[in-house]
Structures
1.
Amino acid sequence: MKTFKIFVCACLLGSVNFTSAQNDKKMNQYIDALLAKMSLEEKIGQLNLVTAGEVTTGTAVSTDVESKIMSGSIGGIFSMTSPQRIRQAQELAVNHSRLKIPIIFGMDVIHGYKTIFPIPLGLAASWNMPLIRQTARVAAIEATADGLNWTFSPMVDISRDARWGRISEGSGEDTYLSARIAKEMVIGYQGDDLRKNNTLLACVKHFALYGAAEAGRDYNTTDMSLHRMYNEYLPPYKAAIDAGALSVMTSFNDINGVPASANHWLLTDLLRADWKFDGLVVTDYTAVNELVDHGLGDLQQVSARSLKAGVDMDMVGEGFLTTLKKSLAQGTVRTQDIDRACRNVLITKYKLGLFDDPFRYCDPARQKKETLTDEHLSLARKAAGESFVLLKNQAQTLPLKKQGTVAVIGPLANTGANMPGTWSVSADLENTASLVEGMRAALDSKVKIVTHLGANLTDDSALQERATMFGRTIPRDERAPEVIIDEALQTSQQADVIVAALGESSEMSGESSSRTDLNIPTSQRRLLEALIKTGKPVVLVLFTGRPLTLTWENEHLPAILNVWFGGTQTGNAVADVLFGDINPSGKLPVTFPQNIGQLPLYYSQKNTGRPLKQGAWFQKFRSNYLDVSNDPLYPFGYGLSYTTFSYSDIHLSNTKINSGESLTASVQVTNTGKYDGQEVVQLYIRDLVASQTRPIKELKGFKKIALNKGESKTVEFTISPEDLKFYNQQLEFSSEPGVFKVFIGTDSQDLQETEFELTI
Ligand code: BGC
């Protein structure tokens, strides 16, 4: 029987290889023939990616798009939407350009397209891999139904500095969790066949290390040891590529002295030679031109350098379009460099099936039928509910009873436009329900909701303007703060409970939205103080795109529910969770510090030579601060439930293994509370002695399980030889014999522990 199975598998594999080899041959012949017909100008034209201007993130915008399409000077367009408009542009290319090469159409489809899901940091908090994959699938269906075939996602930049605004767009601080999510997103977008009209080409970004910008200031320098890069920052990009992502976007930042978009080591030695990536490399928005400001030369010099480093497509800046011909004549680039880049663009189009049918994504009937469907909206509601993290719930303040009156007070209560969160450029902001509207719809008049602005987002009107760009407005009241608060208190008088809808506006995080103060703005703190004085229970529903410093709030409020930015269905989902229809199960994908001075703060730190004793605070001549403990306010992996879970001791299948063996670690988890619920069971490992220093713990597995009240389940993890490996000083990926600690528990601090030994 065994032999037969192996035989069948071998046959299948053989036939798959044969077919794909045949397909590759056919594709290469097609592309070779096409390349042979192309003029130099046409080849360079394919490297030009322009924006249609619906969304711009820099000062430059593309011009003369129509005539450039017809002259073959454009390979791709992004931020153009609708099947009709895209058909028109595609018609210009395939009917009016000499070689009729179709255009690729891209867009930033980051956390949903029309149906918006929680911001990526929120989705990561669900720790629900099938759910995350489904959200990417739905995004692909809706975006392709609108004519698109390429998304600039997933964004997999690890970030450990909450000052950086774009921490909201990624999966947080952890290498393992981010890598798992990267894989799910790519599979969700690309499906099993890129030629289908509902699959979307993924683009892994921002390669690389963009999230490690110094001081959390956007676009700033990164400088990092290779050891840290390989072990902590690069794996999520690699996971996305291993999952089949066929395009990669270079990042804006400098990496150890060479900006990513001109970095030959990064884009050729690592990406192509070591990782065997054979897809398309595109720059970020005007990143080639920005090499001039980085100090690498004039536009012609930096364009040549970027091409030779391994970039195929130049986004918006047109440095390639305007200078490569001259560089070729002067011998600073070679024909093979241009051919290589052009081939990668053409192969991508071929793989999308655009040469067979350039209009395969332009079906207006699909757009109507497959956008914002009931199924998509209910997925968005589920995803939002699962992304919320219950940070505090003293004396079971939550869930609330579905009765009486609730006052929803605060600048985030009545703004639909802020619910989708940052980088939701295709969201229909005008038709997105506000928190109050969504709650009212979900509660169906069982609970009376009264509402008031209560406070401005911030006292500083100029800051508010900067933090509410792109139509994400929040009403502003210019009267004295005390007058607004008084009115809010009157509104709250009739309420049994106050829900304070506070925190950040959606554009307070995201691109170019770094902050140096992570407290809830003073205007809102003042409101909270007044609300607390009413003596009524005050529940903070916190909107944020990043970890905030909530030390004061944690001390003074009975309940805090972090809802990030939950997308189209935020209001409904907040009602689901506040009133107990959904038991919160989100866990933080990023550490929340006590204060900003602790940053960067992350759970997988090194021990140092002078660690603090466990549980201690200040010890002279130990690694700590005079004024605050080393502890986070809320650790990575943390999140409460309305129920409680208990963990048994860890049982190991073996306490000694050799480097080719696996072992299992299991625990029994019991729901000891009064509600059915879900728990994310987390596995961490520590390599106690090695040839180089290792983190005090690293996430190596997790399982999200459902447990009815009173129910127990045994959760088993396999620890494989791969889980024990790391990149050593020679950058070899290997394990070293010795003792390893194993931790299993509910967050990165509350853990059971045991140990095993790895022999050679
Ligand atoms: C961002 C990218 C985005 C691109 C295109 C840039 O400013 O950094 O993440 O994909 O714009 O919109």
2.
Amino acid sequence: MSRVLATTPVVGPKALPEGLDPERLPRHIAVIMDGNGRWAKSRSLPRVMGHREGVEALKRMLRLCSDWGVGALTAYAFSTENWNRPGEEVSFLMTLFERVLARELEALDREQVRIRFLGDLSPLPPGLQQLIADATARTAANTGIHFNVCTNYGSRAELVRAARSLAERAARGELDPSAIDEALLSAELHTAGELDPDLLIRTSGEQRISNFLLWQLAYAELHITDVLWPDFDQEALVAALLDYQGRQRRFGGVTSLP
Ligand code: IPE
Ligand code: IPE
Ligand code: MG
């Protein structure tokens, strides 16, 4: 039987699952990838096995977002507070980031992904910092999805850094403090140049923000799912998108914007 006449709308090169409106996809999705440890524990595995499986979920998510025409995906990989975890878990994660980036860079570049790492990268292992610098430079001119990996990222640290930078410019006489507005502050954040996320997904059921994108999420729609991050698959993403498309975004006004 021919499948050519399938009525599923097409966005970019790949078909969007039925029921989703291609005109109302979020332009930018942010995700708090939580629940790796619990996923492993439920299988009597060491926590770090959950992180390894979490990488597969992130690759899946990136591919789906890219295929469906979502413009940007920002994923929380390691917070400024995650240094408080046991040393072995932290070093496992750093090695994992390094291995995965080295292994996946070629394919990411081929698929036109533009990758950036958001956060204070200076405390990361030197080998990882080098890989990050290479990956960022190599993919900077790519025209596909913007893939932001928040690594040693904390929203409060990001805001403090922005405030300090503006204060230094003012102290040097380059900036009139009364000229500081939302656009100037936004431009000092790690996310400079990116649209604010339309949708925040948090897995594993926790109902909190955990120091993620406090400024940028001002008007994001929140989707919290009990699915643990390593289990997050196409079905879970479609559920998040359907939830998002069912919302009426008002931005403080009284009518829904188109
Ligand atoms: C999220 O999963 C991954 C990172 C924070 C690096 P967790 O490791 O927080 O998993 P849970 O919350 O303990 O289940
Ligand atoms: C948030 O998850 C950070 C990342 C997903 C990288 P956490 O597991 O660290 O958050 P809390 O401790 O439950 O708030
Ligand atoms: Mg957690």
3.
Amino acid sequence: MSFARIIGTGGYLPSNVVTNHDLEKLVDTSDQWIRERTGIEQRHIAVEGETTVDLAEQASRNAIEAAGIDTSEIDLIIFATSTPDKIFPSSACILQARLDIHGCPAFDIQAVCTGFIYALSVAEKFIQTGSARTALVVGAEVFSRILNWEDRDTCVLFGDGAGAVILQADEETGILSSHIHADGKYENLLWVPHGVGDGFDQVKAGKAFVEMRGNEVFKMAVNTLGRIVDETLAASDMKKSDIDWLVPHQANIRIIAATARKLKMSMEQVVVTVNKHGNTSAASVPLALDVAVRDGRIKRGELLLLEAFGGGFTWGSVLVRF
Ligand code: ACO
């Protein structure tokens, strides 16, 4: 069985930056509250007409270039998003056509903020079993379109963006283990309560927005991420001290710091982008990975722990020899 190795990463953020001070003009909030409670200073927000697949295409092209491959080598596309351009075709199929790739399987995965971890885990299985050799795995979102910009509890937290990796079969190293989980009983702690199921009435009325009981989500996220770190390390017979880099989902700096503490890792070993990107849901882990690969912090041969927690609830982690 082959390993699935990350041979290239890419990211893309819309050029439009919205600061906390900009949000002070929209809702009753303050730069100080947002920084202290979340660590967020700014986020990138897509402009009108700019879609999830637009962002994903740029991130994918950057990953393809970094991997040094031709698009004709890609034989699997998995696209994680909760904000697809259309109900169908899938964002993966739209992206496939944009990249002029034809015939390979292409599908979306919906696991909200854990979407990229789910997608990476599924792609790994395809490569391990020989069903694919070179996979494009993308996480991309325009969460700004499902936010109520009058609700200070949610609108200050999220941003738009896209991240991508190219995975390729490798006989020596790559993803060492991946673990994905879900528990649907927590649906209404974090959800968009409307959609196709209610005939789109509420969507048309402009009421299909993210709703979150932030405090309860926070506690669940911290406890669950601690458990999954232990599960991941045990499966690969590794110790906490073996990990070189934590690449966490970027929801809140306090959740990230609590996970790092459980791992006994210094924040110097944690990739943090939540300050500049906000929570970009499925895009946050691949964007953070790309930032730290491109600025030279993450080097070949190092051990990375990627993890996420999100709506569903869903959660997961991937241990990678880079
Ligand atoms: N500006 C100013 N005040 C605010 C704001 C705001 N933007 N939002 C809430 N407040 C107020 C509240 O009304 C409350 O006021 P009160 O004490 O008078 O009632 C006070 O601030 C404290 O509110 P809390 O909700 O208790 O604040 P908390 O410290 O829990 O922070 C936050 C809220 C940032 C949402 C935090 O709970 C969090 O990060 N939760 C987890 C988010 C997460 O991980 N999501 C998962 C991934 S997202 C996905 O899957 C789509």
4.
Amino acid sequence: MLIDVVTIFPETVECSLRTGILERGQEDGIIQVRAHDLRDFTDDRHKVTDEPPYGGGPGMLMKPEPFFRAVHHCRRGQHNSRVLLMTPQGRQLNHKICEELAREEHLIILCPRYEGVDERVRQWVVTNEVSIGDYVLSGGEFPAMVVVDAVARLIPGLVGEPESVRGDSFAQAGLEGPQYTRPREFQGLEVPAVLLSGNHQMIARHNCEQSRLRTVQRRPDLLR
Ligand code: 6GU
């Protein structure tokens, strides 16, 4: 899968690509993520990407042309591209949307700053508007990396053990129960005996019950 991220802060994106599974996924050729500097798609000497809004109002808006040119550039040689706009006005990201995106060949993710983008970017180039929750961040870079990480780990071969993806919260419509590693006893707290029993059937039943309990307690909405 190819993912292009368009931003005025490409170094923010590049930095988070140099760690963990995103780095390995790129080394293994499973995903390729490219960060593009929106300023490279301006046509004036000062590389202006934002202007005050027509009709007045606070702050600055991002101009349409650099985004248009950037998308055109990223699309070259690609057949099926989805263009995501990161905005608090978008559909809130969830596991189902991540699964849909993970089936795509090419994503182009636009990261606005300031008060947002000129409406014509939405009208002409964007296929999906995506939010990561009901709060406002100062730009789309971190939300874009949330999308990249959440989508990348659903691509077959990226995460070492497919089981660890399937067992993840939400993939199985519930939360994972408590988990333990060494030592057996820590500050007077013992690991539940059943997990040390070696009886895989009992362990599976225990984990299943614990998962259900935690979901009932914390996210009853997921069971409905
Ligand atoms: Cl996608 N962008 C910004 N700026 N803030 C957000 C967001 C996106 N999702 C939640 N808050």
